[in-house]
Amino acid sequence: MSLMLLARALPEPVKDLIKTTRNNTGLALVRLFSSSGFLSSVYYCLISREFDREHRAVLLGRLHFAQRMLGKGENDAFLRRNVHRLEKGLIMRPRRSTFAEDYIGPTVRCYADATRAGVVNGQQRWANDVLTDYFSAVGSTPRIDSAKRAFTSTENPDETNRCVPYPHSQLPDCPVSYDELMVLFRRRRSVRWYQDKPVSNELIEQAVSAAALAPSACNRQPFRFYVSNGKEKAAEVAKCAGGTAGFHDNLPCVIAVVGDLGCYPEARDRHVVYIDGSLAAMQLMLALESLGLSSCSINWPDVEERERQLAKILGLAYQERTVMLLAVGYADPTGGIPYSDKKTEKDLIIYN
Question: Which domain of life is it from (predicted)?
Fold first, then answer.
């Protein structure tokens, strides 16, 4: 008789006793090992291996970043971060006469490498314009002068539609009132039942264009959206997550929000892929709602078997971490939606 069959054959009081003993023992171990950082590390090294993937993904991400730094092509994350830092220096009050000396040289080299590699995109244009304004604004030091000479040999002057910091007064007026915005927020509900109607890639691209405007730490935008459009593909991906049993075959489209730990040289920033990915995902869901498409955010569990399954389907590198899945489609008008009572501002605000 297998252990599974034996366990099922046990009387309910015995099952309850075994479960209670196991839970109490686990809690006692947690109480003991949570008493210090060292013991916590021992716990997740010897007793629980639940963080193994995260640990290795962080290290591989750091390695991937270092390899990109040694290469001669485009290093998207490094250049985006440092150009954003230059922008912040340019808008400071008061602006310092010299700043960014410790990273301006590597920033120009990164820009120049991408230019020589033939990279032509919005990021290069933005970097070119900000570097131009930076060198026009700062004073002279040996390191700044050296970087300026290197930049001058590769810059692409273009005075039309420059991508540089601008005053707040140039932003368009907001045409949306608070009440109108609240209507959109109330319409955006977690929808699990959809019409048998295809979702066009054009609408998804339109929504992603809006999601790309979400805030991102140092403007790295360390995420991508893996779109599985079509019921068969969507179901295959949705089955990898927990909590989709009973409705995954109904989903016309699923989007995996995936963060890349290879955008960071230090472990201290490992959490940013989840923050930035979630900010973009929320903006994406609101954009989808405005285009007539409903959505449902699906929790992604850190379970090794499921991680491998999804990585194989989507072709993810080990340092790429799934933030969440999103179901997308045209809502079935007769489909039920959970009421999901929300906390009030009095529950959520703590003034200090």
Answer: Bacteria
Per-residue DSSP letter, 232:
H
Same structural domain for residues 183 and 321? yes
**323 and 187: one domain?**
yes
**Judging by DSSP bridges, how do beta strands 320-329 and 294-299 pair with one another?**
antiparallel
* Together in a domain, 274 and 192: yes
pLDDT digit string, tens, across residues 92-123: 999 999 999 999 999 999 999 988 888 888 99
Largest distance between two CA atoms of the chain: 83
Domain that holds residue 263: 178-329
Structural contact between residues 298 and 327, judged by C-beta atoms closer than 8 angstroms: yes
Residue 147 near residue 184, CB atoms below 8 Å? no
Q: In what order do the strands lie in the sheet with 294-299?
A: 223-229, 253-260, 320-329, 294-299
Contact 267/63 with Cβ under 8 angstroms? Answer: no
According to the model, what pLDDT value does residue 16 have? 81
Which CATH number do you get for residue 205?
3.40.109.10
